[in-house]
Specification:
Elements: H1 4-10, H2 32-43, H3 53-60, H4 64-77, E1 80-82, E2 89-91, H5 94-105, H6 109-123, E3 126-133, E4 136-143, E5 158-160, H7 165-173, H8 176-185, H9 199-212, E6 215-218, E7 225-233, E8 239-248, H10 254-273
Antiparallel strand pairs: 1-2, 3-4, 3-8, 4-5, 6-7, 7-8
């Protein structure tokens, strides 16, 4: 359902979402060099393969000399490695240490794992948990269906908040002022011919989601895919992520999919909130 090149083309690196050094102007605690280092690591999220020094410099907005110093430092620490054949650079194994720490220490993810396994067993379709990060949703837990490719098992992939089932579920749980802010800053673009990019239409989907307690997205990330999302909220009621189930429209009608999947997804979201 999700081939490698398709998933990589939908990924939204953090560096594309407006989190720049300029945004911290006047902040005496903000370390510019640390920000530049993180931008180098973030630049690989949207890469199709090993990146050359020139490509890293272009992707991060640095001059070549500055990029070279950062790359050298990250190589020395094991966070970047030289690609085979000397064709460029790749993230090193130590990057996984950071992901491991985030997933292990997240207050909700550990208890969500068992719930998602049970949900996958019941629905027999792909089940994912994503985390909300401003204008995007980042996959943190993934339970596969029989059709999935290896790439669809990878955590860390991100999709837009404005055109996905998980994103609509999160937006529906946010105050209107925050929804307005997100939709005003979103870098809209078509992923498929059916992807919604009109803020008014997106608001309609968010309102529908808020009214019924779950979202339903068709053809947004992939033609022929249907996905249902339910927001995951903390004890304060704020959404921190979403659980979503995805399947093929060749096997489900939207009506049957919602009738079968929505109660189970809502139950799973509640179980996660209650501690598994």
């Amino acid at each position: 359902m999700e081939p490698h090149d398709h998933e990589s083309s939908t990924n939204l690196p953090a560096s594309t979402l407006g989190a720049t050094e300029a945004g911290a102007e006047g902040d005496r605690l903000f370390i510019q060099s640390a920000a530049r280092t993180m931008r180098v690591l973030e630049s690989f999220a949207g890469a199709a393969g090993p990146m050359s020094l020139s490509e890293i410099a272009a992707a991060t907005g640095m001059n070549r000399s500055a990029a070279q110093r950062v790359v050298h430092t990250l190589r020395s620490l094991g966070y970047l490695i030289q690609a085979e054949g000397g064709t460029g650079f790749l993230p090193g194994p130590r990057v996984l240490d950071l992901a491991y720490g985030q997933l292990r220490l997240h207050p909700w993810i550990a208890q969500a794992s068992g719930v998602l396994i049970e949900l996958r067993r019941n629905v027999r379709e792909r089940v994912d948990l994503s985390l909300h990060d401003d204008l995007r949703m980042i996959y943190a837990l993934r339970q596969q269906s029989k059709r999935e490719t290896w790439f669809a098992t990878l955590v860390g992939h991100s999709v837009p908040v404005w055109c996905t089932s998980g994103g609509w579920a999160v937006l529906a749980a946010l105050p209107e002022a925050e929804v307005d802010d997100i939709l005003a800053r979103a870098p809209y673009h078509k992923i498929t011919a059916r992807t919604l990019t009109d803020p008014a239409e997106i608001r309609d989907r968010v309102a529908e989601t808020r009214a019924r307690g779950y979202s339903l997205a068709l053809h947004q990330i992939q033609i022929g895919e249907i996905a249902l999302g339910v927001a995951l909220t903390g004890r304060d009621g704020r959404p921190w992520g979403a659980v979503h189930v995805a399947a093929s429209l060749s096997e489900w009608s939207p009506k049957d999919f919602a009738a079968r999947i929505a109660p189970l997804a809502i139950e799973a979201a509640l179980a996660i909130r209650m501690g598994g």
